[in-house]
Specification:
There is one protein chain. The protein is of the alpha+beta class. It has one domain (2-117): 2-Layer Sandwich (Alpha-Beta Plaits). Helix content is 36%, strand content 27%. The protein is built from three helices and five strands; from the N terminus they run βαββαβαβ. It has a five-stranded mixed sheet with strand order 2-3-1-4-5. Helix 1 packs antiparallel against helix 2 (62-73). It is globular, with a radius of gyration of 14 Å.
Length: 127
Amino acid sequence: MYLALIADVIDSKIVQERFDLQKQLEKTLQKINELFKDCLASAFTLTLGDEFQALLKVEAPVFQIIDTLRSELKPTQLRFGIGLGEIVTDIDPLQSIGADGPAYWNARAAINLVHQKNDYGNTQIYF
């Protein structure tokens, strides 16, 4: 079993300095990958401009990781989807691209719920 974590930047389309945001995301993900390397099955990877994901070992301190991401990327607001499940393909420990299975499916469903529900901007994490 694994925890898949998918995150994206809220309202990224209105960010004026998108290049700077992209560089900040890259730098932060490198730092998170180093800080939590023992908890990662597959490293945090930028997937779509302002979206990133990782595959965590089930015992990973997922909410500590989320808090660290939020702190490092302030004032940028993030939303998260967390999925628990198996991975049915090979796992690349260096990048979280190409792996597939219920952990990622559940994380994608969770982040889609955050997009849909919004709760006046209060809901930012679904599991």
